[in-house]
Amino acid sequence: MCGPSVFDFEAWEAALRSDPNGEQHQATLHHMDVDDSTRLVAKRMRAALHEVGMSVEDAAPRAGMSASSLYRKLRGERHITFTELVHIAVLTGRHPSSFVRDLDERP
User: Fold this and answer.
1) Contact residues for 6 (Cβ-Cβ < 8 A; gap 6+)
2) pTM of the entire predicted model
3) Nearest to residue 87, comparing CAs of 2, 12, 24?
4) pLDDT single digits (tens) 13-48
């Protein structure tokens, strides 16, 4: 028998559905230029989508963006908003912090 989930993804998904445009959560990660940190977050997101077998075409509308926009974000060419990060986290069954963990501790 599994214990209770540490992070309630269903509650997050319900909250995101109730605010589909992310009006209350549009905090863009401004401190990150399109640099190595952005590319590392993108790489982690690509890996997470791959692990759950979800294509960009399937994930994009569920994450509130077009497939071309998600492709650019997953290549590290564009910034990702916190809301978009949370959408991908929900889709992949991860906590949002798993994509940004240890960014400040890199050499």
Assistant:
1) 95
2) 0.64
3) 12
4) 565 566 555 444 444 434 345 678 888 899 999 999
